[in-house]
Amino acid sequence: GRTLTHVKMNEALSHRCILLTCLATYLGCVAQTLPPDVAQVSTDCGDFKGRHKNGAYSFKGIPYAAPPVGALRWAPPAPPACSSEVTDAGHFRSMCTQVRPLSSTGRLMGQEDCLFINVWTPTLQPGARLPVVVWIHGGYLHMLSGNEPGYSPTEELAADTGVVYVSFNYRLNAFGFLALEVLREGSPRNTSGNYGFLDQIAALQWVQKNIQAFGGDPEKVTIVGHSSGGTSVWTLMTSPLAIGLFHAAVDMSGSSVQNGTLEEVEKINEVFLNKTGCKDAACLRKLSVEKVLQAIPWKEYPYWGADDLLDLPTKGLFIGPVVAVDGYLLEAPPFEVWEKKLNHSDVPFLIGSTQQETDFYPPAENISSWTWDDYRWFVTEKLSTFNETLPDEALRLYPTSDPCPTTDRCPERAYITMTSDIRVSCPLSDVAQRAAAALSSPVYRYVVTHTPSGPVNATDDLLPFPSHFSFHFLDAVTFFGGLEPLLGKTLSSEDQSFWDLFKQNLLSFVKTGKMDAEWREFPEATALLSHNLTVVQSYSPARCDLWKKNGLFEYGWMN
Fold it and tell me: Which fold has domain 38-339?
């Protein structure tokens, strides 16, 4: 009896131990289970914990390269250190070092340790293979970041469009683009400068390796850049180093001028070297962040400041190039790359601009109160430096009788339209013409003509002026849902129609590499985008011919 009792007691204890073990295991599993608003993804360099809200997942501040500090300042990006721990990716990390506004007295922002990438996705199923948009922010290659509110992707956009979005920071200003002969030391290619573009290539390589884990398709990547981000897109299109890293490209209001050779740019930048007092790279790498930014030639000619790019040009007056044709990242100036059939990406290409690009920071503080006499005087004063007849020809093509969508600020609109045609829209149509001749892939062109329902609320960083027309940024901020906050009021029906139309067409291009049949390839058609879509053969051909004939395309936006 005692033996049987012992056996039963042992069996009971055994069952109890099994139950306790199972319970402990279960509780351990529960403890390790992520909360419903947290998600985890494995990359080629560690595991990252993101967030889920508003119908999509976000992973913010993932390092895609090592911090470019110390010996890595002014060096190509190096691989990041990988962690064996799960890294939190719930918050944005530092923007790259910059000053706002662009001047020697601007406010210092950001850090050198800034090479981080962000992902927004509606699904984490690796087999989903959704289209991917890689957003390259603008800011004249000097400022801003991949997470500017209203000017970068969001969870809502990813959920609404069924697309994976990526943004990232890249080195800016002198930290990203300083070309100097002394910085060639240790360079395996005997080059200097363009470090920010090399960062962009490293970010695209990260996307190729990892985006499938975030539900994206590495074979359906579209790069989309605005302003200097558009300049970056064109650079990547014509760089042999970026071939195979993307499959379609969108250039919104990028630069049309990239001609400075490495030697020319290095020579121009000697003013930077002289201001630092340094003689070699070792000295430069020891400089404080403040001293580097103060040595930038914001006002010394040919300056890095952008003021002159926002007005009608003065003959012979140019800003200093930041981008260098170095024979490595860029084998030749972009037009020459196409003409000589050098190595480049042949992918569908969409080129866009807005009708009043320079309205975001116009040249005269009182321009909003100009009379038509003021308009005629300024046009004559600026353009007579080219030849005596040019002002009259220009005023004939941009007459005071032109239709104006508002009851005020019409002289401002006429002047800004003329400036924008010279600096951006006409030169970009020339880029599209050359692209269509060089690429076997389709090329498309658009010009935004929409006038928002009111002036924007001026901000210090993005829009420092109460812009009222088709200003620089209008296409980008509208796509990202940032127009309503800028207006400070509910969108009008026409604002909403423009947003819907722009989003629909951009997503069509992202998903298929093509536009609807109505929007034909360039040079057969240019789309004018407002609350509706109008197709014309070309944008303002007589006006663009005038500027081209008089050599003003070389005064297009640089950088």
Answer: Rossmann fold (3.40.50)
Do 349 and 514 form a contact (C-beta atoms < 8 A)? no
Tens-digit pLDDT profile for residues 91-100: 999 999 999 9
Q: Are 529 and 494 in contact (CB under 8 A)?
A: no
* Structural tokens at position 451: 């006038």
Amino acid at 177: F
Secondary structure element (H or E) that encloses residue 167, with its range:
strand 164-168
Residues with Cβ within 8 Å of residue 165, at least 6 apart in sequence: 119, 120, 121, 132, 133, 135, 153, 157, 158
Supply the pTM of this predicted model: 0.93
Tokens of 277: 């007092």
pLDDT digits over 541-550, tens only?
A: 999 999 999 9
Q: Note the CATH number of domain 349-555.
A: 3.40.50.1820
Start-end of CATH 3.40.50.1820 domains in the chain: 38-339, 349-555
For the ranges 238-252, 313-327, 372-386, 522-536, the lowest mean pLDDT is seen at 313-327
- Cα separation, 491 vs 453, whole angstroms: 7
pLDDT tens digits for 111-166?
Answer: 999 999 999 999 999 999 999 999 999 999 999 999 999 999 999 999 999 999 99
CB 297 within 8 A of CB 303: yes
CB 521 within 8 A of CB 433: no
